[in-house]
């Protein structure tokens, strides 16, 4: 039988963020991120297959699932939420903490329907506020480009959802017969002199212009300033082109999961309820 984790003694934590396109994973020893990796999200994967994916990567880095003490998951794919719950019980010998009802986050939600809020967006907001204070705006560049807003007092106020760059590219190439896939890299000029340059201008520079414009308007709605933090796979490129983004943290979501895990592992009282993300 595996030993039970002691959350106060710097146990090895596996943090998993399941997105629609990619799954980001990391192993923490206390507050230190030891390893991180990204795999494609396979919606039909079983618990055994998920365990094999992650265990193989850990073994390449000198570890294994057997060495992990705890697990926390945020997921926007319900079938994989179930899969990771089963993985934890079968291979880690204890339940995973899953961001949802009964989980402490320390953040109030001032939105019409908390059920609409994705787990990753909530985790990002918690991490950004705990690390950088408020008000703050989190720009996440993934399947969707999302902006999430937290007040000075640490209340989640809402945000913006737009298609991500790769999603927009897929839509263009699927619906327009003469357009082909292009690398998402910044063009040398806004005015494209070829179809490829024109697509890159629209996709990359258009996304940056949208983010900058929205951040400026959000700051005006907040009647002041706000720290803008970018995360996600394309955050590095976009941040170099943006005039509004202040900070880059590609691992923000994993750090939010670490923070939420510590809140719940240390808690001895009844947890605050948060609505199930969809």
Please give a structural write-up.
The chain is an alpha/beta fold and 278 residues long. It folds into 2 domains: 12-98, Nucleotidyltransferase, domain 5 (2-Layer Sandwich); 108-251, Nucleotidyltransferase, domain 5. It has helices spanning 47-60, 78-92, 119-132, 165-175, 195-221, 235-241, 252-266, and strands at residues 12-18, 22-29, 32-40, 70-75, 97-98, 108-109, 136-141, 144-150, 155-163, 227-231, 247-248. It has a 6-stranded mixed beta sheet with strand order 6-9-8-7-10-11, with helices on both faces. The protein has a 5-stranded mixed beta sheet with strand order 3-2-1-4-5, with helices on both faces. Strand 2 and strand 3 form a beta hairpin. Helix 1 (47-60) crosses helix 2 and helix 3 crosses helix 7 (252-266). It is globular.
CATH superfamily of the largest domain: ATPase, nucleotide binding domain
CA distance, first residue to last residue: 35 Å
* CATH fold description of the largest domain: Nucleotidyltransferase, domain 5
Question: In sequence order, what are the helices and strands, one letter per element?
Answer: EEEHEHEEHEEEHHEHEH
Overall pLDDT metric: 90
The structure class reads: alpha/beta
Strand order of the largest sheet: 6-9-8-7-10-11
Tally the beta strands: 11
Shape, principal axes of CA atoms: globular
- Assign a percent range to the helix content: 25-40%
């Amino acid at each position: 039988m595996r030993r039970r984790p002691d959350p106060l003694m710097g146990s090895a934590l596996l943090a998993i963020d399941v997105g629609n396109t990619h799954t980001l994973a990391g192993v923490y020893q206390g507050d230190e991120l030891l390893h991180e990796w990204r795999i494609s999200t396979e919606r039909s994967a079983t618990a055994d297959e998920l365990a094999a994916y992650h265990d193989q990567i850990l073994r390449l880095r000198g570890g294994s699932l057997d060495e992990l003490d705890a697990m926390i998951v945020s997921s926007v794919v319900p079938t994989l939420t179930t899969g990771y719950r089963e993985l934890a019980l079968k291979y880690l010998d204890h339940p995973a903490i899953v961001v949802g009802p009964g989980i402490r986050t320390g953040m109030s939600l001032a939105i019409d329907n908390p059920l609409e809020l994705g787990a990753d967006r909530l985790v990002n907001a918690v991490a950004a506020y705990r690390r950088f204070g408020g008000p703050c705006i989190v720009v996440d560049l993934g399947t969707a480009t999302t902006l999430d807003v937290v007040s000075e007092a640490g209340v989640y106020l809402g945000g913006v959802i737009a298609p991500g760059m790769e999603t927009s590219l897929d839509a263009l190439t699927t619906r327009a017969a003469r357009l082909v896939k292009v690398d998402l890299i910044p063009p040398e000029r806004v005015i494209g002199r070829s179809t490829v340059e024109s697509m890159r201008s629209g996709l990359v520079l258009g996304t940056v212009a949208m983010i900058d414009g929205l951040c400026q308007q959000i700051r005006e709605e907040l009647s002041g300033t706000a720290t803008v933090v970018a995360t996600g796979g394309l955050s590095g490129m976009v941040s170099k082109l943006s005039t509004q983004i202040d900070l880059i943290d590609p691992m923000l979501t994993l750090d939010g999961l670490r923070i939420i895990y510590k809140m719940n592992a240390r808690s001895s009282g009844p947890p605050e309820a948060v609505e199930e993300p969809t």
